[in-house]
Design goal:
By secondary structure, the chain is mainly α. It is built from 7 helices and 3 strands.
Length: 224
């Protein structure tokens, strides 16, 4: 009997999207519980660590930590095979490095106080200019470096996927991270910034054409 799964997160892709994708590709039905921001302040104190996502399986206690959820979802299907663990974890580590590198450029616009700036700095003229410079510099200088690493990984593993000849949870993590740059809505990031990297474009489109994923996205690479 298939488990009863409920995944709770905000109504955005964020860190829950790789888990959702892994559940879909593993053939697991789940309740995709989306929290609206007006309800967050009341929900937060009820959570184990005061953060989302959380998952419940067959009504069990709340599970936490997105990485653990991703690996669990992959293990329920064929996305986390034991003979590919090192390759998968290596690829996950690389995407994690890219996310950490990009993070300050993204989150300074949301929580500048976490980066040594006063609250409200992101709305000042100086803060707005700094955000613009950080993001444009990252896209120009750091993104190409990570795209090269990812392209090399795809080549190393047969030309289709990042960690093997078949899709894995590493692709569930990599594809939405890369695709997000093409959706629009990130100030000072050109939605066409991946156009000069055809191997990456093909990789994202290949992932988004998988059964269960095709038709999921309405904007950006891999959309209808």
């Amino acid at each position: 009997m298939a488990p009863s799964i409920k995944l709770t997160y905000f109504d955005i892709e964020g860190v829950a999207e790789p888990i959702r994708l892994a559940l879909i590709l593993s053939g697991l039905e789940f309740e995709d519980d989306r929290v609206v921001f007006k309800d967050w302040s009341a929900l937060k104190p009820t959570l184990p660590y005061g953060q989302l996502p959380i998952m419940t399986i067959d009504g069990s206690e709340m599970k936490t930590q997105s990485g653990a959820m991703l690996r669990w979802a992959g293990s329920q299907g064929k996305l986390y095979p034991s003979n590919k663990l090192y390759d998968i974890e290596e690829a996950i580590g690389l995407i994690g490095d890219a996310q950490k590198s990009w993070g300050p450029s993204l989150y300074i616009a949301m929580r500048p106080e976490n980066y040594g700036y006063p609250q409200g700095y992101n709305k000042s003229d100086e803060g707005i200019e700094r955000i613009k410079t950080m993001r444009q510099n990252w896209i120009a200088n750091e993104l190409p470096r990570y795209l090269k690493y990812i392209s090399d990984m795809i080549d190393k593993h047969g030309g289709k996927w990042i960690a093997g000849e078949e899709v894995t949870i590493a692709d569930c993590l990599a594809a939405p991270f890369l695709r997000r740059f093409t959706v629009g809505g990130i100030d000072h990031v050109d939605a066409n910034c991946l156009d000069g990297y055809p191997k990456i474009v093909e990789y994202i489109e290949r992932f988004c054409a998988l059964d269960g994923i095709k038709g999921r996205y309405k904007t950006g690479l891999g959309s209808n």
